Amino acid sequence: MKSIPNLVLCGERLVNGFLQQAAVLSLLLSVALLAGGCATMGKPRPIEDAEWMRQALSQTRDDLTVWIVLPGNEQTEKHFGIPLQKVRIQPVWLRVANHSTRPYWLLPAFTDPAYFSSAEVTHRFRGILTSANNERRQEIRVEEVAFDQYIPPASDQSGFIYTVLHEGSQVYSIALLSTGSLQRFNFLIPTKRLRTDHGHLTASWRVDSNNITSGDAIDPTDLDILRRNLESLPAHTRNAASTAAGDPINFFIIARWSTLFPALISVGWDETEMLDTHTALRTTGAFIFRTDYRHSPVSPLFVLGRRQDAAFQKVRENINTRNHLRLWLMPMTFGGQPVWAGQISRDIGVRLTTRTPWLTTHEIDPDVDGARWNLVQDLIKAQCIAQIGFVEGGTSATPLAPRRNLTGDKYFTDGLRVVLFLSATPLGADEIQVLPWFYPPHGGLSQPGDYLKSFKDDPTEP
User: Fold this and answer.
1) pLDDT tens column, 208-256
2) Would you give the end-to-end CA distance of the chain in angstroms?
């Protein structure tokens, strides 16, 4: 019987101990929440156009002038009192001077289809212990500095639109609508967050090809001479030792970097990061969890003894399915414009291999001509193509007798390379000139039933 009081006493001690621990945990949680709430209570600094104008890029057309600035993390927190970038929001500061006699309306969906409203921005910083007064101050702050989408005649106004934060470079399109007029001002904002393949090309975001390539650069002005020069360039990429052929060189682009780079970014192509241990591990993680690492590196390939000067990719469902392209500056120009050789293919999956140090590789769609045409369509959408032509110089291969790249993937091609002459000013598809050089075969190389046939008679099969 004496044991019962002891049991009761023991139970009381356990309950008291549990309550004490719960109280401590509750106190710690409250302190954490209070600290989180206090972090949103910073006193914002006033918006002064003079400060933003020192960093602004600007464009003028007719009676409109537009300025744009993307503030960094520290600058954002100073002016808003809340760290917007930590919740993947990038504020974009705009100023528009409308010197015309008609009103304009800003169309923020052209800048970012997924832009945030002011209420969405402040909602992301609403905490359990955030006071109603502090919450209201945040709402007022974000709303009062938002850009007014109506721009009256003879007015000058500034403010923010709230866009999705991206790690890579972006083309921000500022679209202004009036009766019978849609004015678009496109601004390229280069990234400072990534170590990209093309980092060595970014001096003033322009390229002098003579500084990049070796040998004496040639500059033909006759299209027939250009065609013959392009046909003499390598048909394939190579490995670092130039002992084996890889993917085919299947396009050329004639354009300055300041035209080519924004065109690719504007239609959804992302820069790739340099391949190193960190990016390789991140790529492996994206492969395992099937996420969309938008800037995952591509392996180096070589043309004329040099690895690619730039690389881009367009992720589709996840990292396993993407389009990717590489670019090399050639030792020639045309009419003062740099000439780029390129290789594009479509990744359709990932497979194991012993041919790479990380034991995995992307498997490409064997129809590399389809990927080539995909690039043409993208640049038509970017409204930057002035001329299109096809030149010989590649090595053809059929679906029943395909070639292989450096990692053993099969591919087939008609052996032609598309040549794209880009324009710095927008051009519609009806303004594109098709050069009378060569044309891809009617119906392509893949005929009905080809994919149902076995590759057992493939002469390249080991």
Assistant:
1) 444 444 445 667 778 999 999 999 999 999 999 999 999 999 999 999 9
2) 87
CA atoms within 13 Å, Cβ hemisphere of 385: 23
Of the pLDDT bands very low, low, confident and very high (cuts 50, 70, 90), residue 45 is low
Q: Please list the residues that pair with 65 across neighbouring strands.
A: 60, 97
Q: Which residue has the higher pLDDT, 401 or 348?
A: 401
Greater model confidence, 162 or 53: 162
C-alpha 247/C-alpha 311 separation (Å) is 14
**Which residue do the tokens 């009081």 mark?**
5
Residues comprising the chain, all counted: 462
Query: Model pTM greater than 0.85?
Result: no
Residue ranges of the chain that CATH labels 2.60.40: 49-189
pLDDT in tens, 439-461: 888 766 655 444 444 444 444 44
What residues does 184 pair with on adjacent strands?
175
Q: How many CB atoms lie within 10 A of CB 365?
A: 18
Q: How far apart are CA 129 and CA 30, in angstroms?
A: 8
Looking at residue 453, what is its pLDDT? 46
CATH number for the segment(s) 49-189: 2.60.40
